[in-house]
Design goal:
The protein contains 7 helices and 10 strands. The chain is α/β, with parallel strands linked by helices. It has a single domain, classed as Spore Coat Polysaccharide Biosynthesis Protein SpsA, Chain A. It is globular and about 50 Å long.
Amino acid sequence: MISTILQYSTIDIRFLEKNLKQLSKFSDEIIIPICSHLFNGEEEDANKIKESINIISKFDKAFYFIFNWEGAHLGTRYYHNLSRKLGTEKAKNEWLLFVDADELLSDEFIDWFETIKYTDNAYWLTCYWYFREAIYQATRTEGAGMLIKKKYCDWDVYSNHERQQLINKTPNFINGHDYPVLSLTGKPMMHHFSWVRSKEEMLTKVKNWGHNIDKNWIQMVEEEFSRPFNGTDFVHRYQYNIVENIFNI
């Protein structure tokens, strides 16, 4: 049985209902830790929190809790890890699935999990990666969500590596490699819409996400939206195909 821990802040509110709809198809419970502040220290929007709670209340398997921001000196990655640690402590099931609100699983995941759940201890889920609009899909895949047995979830909240810190040290981690998990058809089961945003949404994201100090993201966003999409992104320089917007994002 699966407990899903959903990484969430209100900058991802546009994805919340669609994600909960998908997760409810196979999760026995969906745990949503919400920090009192965005991870850069800005206080959460009370109206968006209320709207988020209204969305969560539509799903019987989903529940949320609020945890407190403790200061900018701890870093943004600290809060990502703390969110997952607190979610882990509340989870009731043997298997835990860690996804972000902007990572949506396809229906194929349900059948796939039924075939593997007793064979390994952890899985790193491969995802399709999108940029600017949900019709622009990268030609290469990435690792995103993590499925792991609860007994191996010993979170180091001060680590800079977030989910990778667990997946790489878990016994019998399949292949011991970044992107081992594919669907039964040989394709990813996860769709990562983290960068499918308007200019304003993207600027909010880059000021708050765990890698906010790695590069001059604000300048990159400004340059990106000074022109139409040119077929590559400023994060990884991937190439893109045009595909159907299957989740109507």
